[in-house]
Each structure stands twice: as C-alpha cells, then as structure tokens.
C-alpha cells in the first residue's frame, strides 16, 4: 500500500518537473515549481529526512518560489517579446541532447553508487554526545561540518551584496523594492496583524527545538523573514534603508562571530572551528543565535531586491 | 473503547477525503475564479476539519492534539484570507461593465 503511494508521488513529481520545464508562461512555471517543492518535501518525510523536508518546504518551495515570483513580475514587460523569439532547430536539438546527457550521467552516477552507500554516520553517532546537541543534523552542521555552514552563511551575504549592487547609483543606500500599500482595513492588513505573533513564536520554537529535534536556524529564519515580508506587503511597515547601520551590523554579525569562535578553536581545541569539549554546546548555541538575525535579514532583503528609491535624495532634490 | 475511537477516526477521515474530492472536482469543473474559490475553500475547510477530528483520537498526548488543532486554525485563517485576496485580484482584472 505504501509502495503504491510512493510510486504515485514519484510519478507526480516527475510529471510536475516536466510540466514546469515545458510550461511557456513564466508564472505557471513558477507555480509548478512551488508545488514541486512541496511534493519533494513529502518525499523527504517518506525518507525520514524531516530536517531536509522542513528546509525544502521553507526554502525550496516557499522562499525560492517567492524570489521567482518577484522575477516573473519584473519580466512581465518583456515576456511577450521572448515568446515571439524561436530558436532554430539546431539549437533546440542541442539543448535537448545536453539535458538528456546530463540526466543520463546523473542517473548512471546514482545507479553506480556502491552498496551500501559510503557513510560517516556510524562515526558521527558515538561522537555526537561531545557536541552537547541531540539532533544529529545540527551536530553535523555546526560541529563536524561547521566549515560548510560558515561558507553557506557567507555565500548568502555575498548574494545579498550582489543583488544590492544591481541598484542604479542614484538609489544607492535607499530602500529596496516598491512601497507596498494595501487597504488598512482590508484582509491583508488583518492577516499581517494576526499572523506575525504566531509566526514569530513558531519560528523561535523551530530554532530552539533544532538542538534536539528536527528544526534549526534556516527553517526558523525563513518563517521569521516571511512574517516580516507579510507586514511589509500589507503596507504596515517599510523595508529598511540598506545604508542603515544596524541592518548592516546584523547582516555581518553572524558570520563574523562564527569566524571569531572558529579562530578561538585554534588555541583551545587545536583546530579552526574546533570546540573545547566542555564549551561545545554554549559555543554552538552562540553561533546559532548570532546567525539567526543574519539569516532573517539576508533572506528578507533578498526578497526585497535591489534598492529602487531614495526618499532622502528625493527630498533633497525637490524640496516642497 | 479503542474500537469505537478507531471507527470514529475512519468515518471522519473518509468523510474528510470525500469533501476534498468534492472540492477538487469543483476546482476542475466550475466555470470561473469565484465559483472555483468557493468550492475550494468551503469544501476543503470542511474536509480538513473532518480529517483533524479523525486524527485527534489517534494522537498520544494533549500537546500533539493541540498542535493538530493549531494547524487547522492556521490553515482556516490563511485559506480564508488568501481566497479573498485571489478573488479581489480576479475582480480587478475583469473588464469594467
């Protein structure tokens, strides 16, 4: 019975993936992609990867979907022109061949994996108590493979700088995106008042539970960033200016503290990013606490996009 | 006692699945955005309530049950709000009569 369910989900997943690629309308393709992300989260639940499922639903389906929807909105003007263009048959054949070849290589790699798959899990399990966290995912991410997590956080900060650098010079330092306005008595404003208190509690719960249960800073940061975006879209608060000192401090604080604690490991534990055993849990907690605001700010500001208006400069140029 | 609870669960979840099916049929068959939204939100909310009621006797502990009820309330809130927003956006796109 469960095999049938799994097969149906896999078939649906493949069909959705194909549909997302084939769909000509960009909006429909993104809608397909979001549903694909949610279905993929279900697959991870079936594979007992609850942490991955949470991340896939929050980041893969939710956040990436929202980013792509923003891109669709910005490309609306040029979409009709793109449809009119048709690439030649040679180009199409080449693209089809290339994607088939990549799929074939990937399938071959998966099929040729040694059985049982090489794993470090048996090594992790006896050493996990030394980290002081009970969730093996958090243990691996912040102790055994802390370097990956550090680089991930830095990549996100660099991505945000990349998005900001797309701003025209006259808007540099200003506020990103459009100023949203909505009916202050409408349903969106109502939702933006009712949902965030619950969302913030759930986000912090997911963060705190991450030490011992599935959850963690990424999933938590996505929920908190979503609450912030909801408040912005309902017109209840504006996006921050990107030259706001506190915003910038918050963005770099997480990675900087991570690097500082990592450097502290050199004299105390003999390795960069090593933790002295009795201090492992508090240090991991400090890194998580410092990374949370960084991630919330970066994820929300990535959704906001490049600075597109500068109230201060406008006020200077046309005083009323 | 447990047989009775299981029977309640089965009846409620099957009824919930039926309402989900009805909502999906409405989504596929109804002619415009408003009627489709009507089918989706009405039928699916009822379906979710029935599924949650069916699952409640099966959870261990009050806390897990409260989480289920919270999920139900949050989905109700978001589906009600989102259906209004979609309907408003659909109405804005209509040619003015």
Task: Explain what the structure shows.
The complex is a heterodimer of chains A (320) and B (97). In chain A, 72% of the residues lie in helices and 2% in strands. Chain A has helices at residues 2-22, 26-46, 50-84, 89-111, 121-127, 136-144, 146-164, 187-209, 217-233, 245-269, 280-304, 311-317, and strands at 175-176, 307-309. Chain A folds into 3 domains: 1-85; 88-118; 125-311, no CATH class. The model of chain A has no long low-confidence stretch (mean pLDDT 86). In chain A, α6 (136-144) crosses α7. In chain A, 28% of the residues are buried. Chain B has 3 helices and no strands. In chain B, α1 runs antiparallel to α2 and α2 runs antiparallel to α3 (62-93). The longest helix of chain B is centred in the C-terminal third of the chain and has 32 residues, at 62-93. Chain B is elongated and about 60 Å long. The termini of chain B are far apart. At the A-B interface, α8 of A face α3 of B.
* Main sheet attributes: strand count, strand direction, barrel closure of chain B: none
Q: Could you describe the largest sheet of chain A, including whether it forms a barrel?
A: 2 strands, antiparallel
Strand content of chain B: under 5%
> What oligomeric state do the depicted chains represent?
heterodimer
Low-confidence stretches of chain B: none
Greatest chain-chain contact = A-B, 7 and 7 residues
Please describe the topology of this protein.
The complex is a heterodimer of chains A (320) and B (97).
Chain A: H1 2-22, H2 26-46, H3 50-84, H4 89-111, H5 121-127, H6 136-144, H7 146-164, E1 175-176, H8 187-209, H9 217-233, H10 245-269, H11 280-304, E2 307-309, H12 311-317
Antiparallel strand pairs in A: 1-2
Helix pairs in contact in A: 1-2, 2-3, 3-9, 6-7, 7-10, 7-11, 8-9, 9-11, 10-11
Chain B: H1 2-29, H2 33-55, H3 62-93
């Amino acid at each position: 019975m469960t095999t049938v369910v799994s097969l149906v989900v896999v078939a649906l997943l493949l069909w959705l993936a194909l549909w997302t690629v084939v769909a000509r309308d960009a909006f429909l393709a993104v809608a397909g992609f979001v549903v694909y992300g949610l279905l993929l989260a279900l697959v991870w639940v079936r594979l007992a990867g609850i942490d991955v499922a949470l991340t896939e639903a929050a980041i893969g389906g939710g956040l990436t979907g929202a980013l792509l929807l923003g891109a669709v909105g910005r490309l609306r003007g040029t979409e009709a022109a793109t449809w009119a263009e048709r690439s030649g048959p040679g180009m199409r054949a080449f693209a089809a061949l290339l994607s088939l070849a990549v799929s074939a290589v990937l399938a071959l790699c998966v099929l040729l994996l040694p059985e049982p798959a090489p794993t470090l899990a048996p090594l992790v399990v006896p050493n996990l108590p030394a980290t002081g966290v009970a969730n093996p995912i958090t243990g691996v991410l912040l102790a055994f493979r802390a370097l990956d997590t550090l680089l991930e956080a830095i990549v996100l900060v660099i991505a945000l700088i990349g998005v900001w650098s797309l701003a025209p010079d006259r808007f540099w330092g200003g506020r990103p995106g459009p100023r949203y306005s909505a009916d202050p008595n409408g349903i969106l404003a109502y939702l933006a008042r009712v949902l965030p208190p619950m969302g913030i509690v759930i986000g912090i719960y997911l963060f705190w539970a991450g030490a011992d249960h599935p959850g963690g800073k990424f999933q938590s940061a996505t929920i908190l960033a979503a609450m912030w975006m909801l408040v912005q879209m309902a017109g209840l608060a504006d996006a921050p200016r990107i030259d706001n000192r506190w915003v910038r401090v918050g963005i770099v604080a997480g990675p900087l503290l991570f690097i500082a604690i990592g450097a502290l490991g050199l004299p105390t534990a003999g390795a960069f990013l090593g933790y002295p055993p009795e201090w492992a849990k508090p240090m991991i907690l400090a890194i998580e606490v410092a990374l949370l605001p960084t991630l919330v700010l970066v994820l929300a500001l990535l959704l906001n996009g490049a600075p597109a208006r500068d109230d201060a400069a406008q006020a200077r140029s046309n005083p009323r | 006692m447990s047989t009775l609870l299981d029977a309640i669960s089965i009846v409620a979840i099957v009824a919930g699945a039926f309402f989900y099916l009805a909502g999906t049929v409405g989504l596929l068959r109804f002619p415009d955005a408003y009627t489709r939204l009507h089918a989706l939100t009405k039928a699916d909310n009822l379906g979710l309530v029935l599924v949650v009621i069916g699952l409640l006797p099966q959870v261990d502990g009050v806390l897990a049950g409260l989480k289920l009820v919270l999920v139900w309330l949050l989905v109700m809130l978001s589906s009600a709000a989102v259906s209004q927003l979609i309907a408003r956006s659909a109405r804005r796109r209509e040619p003015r009569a």
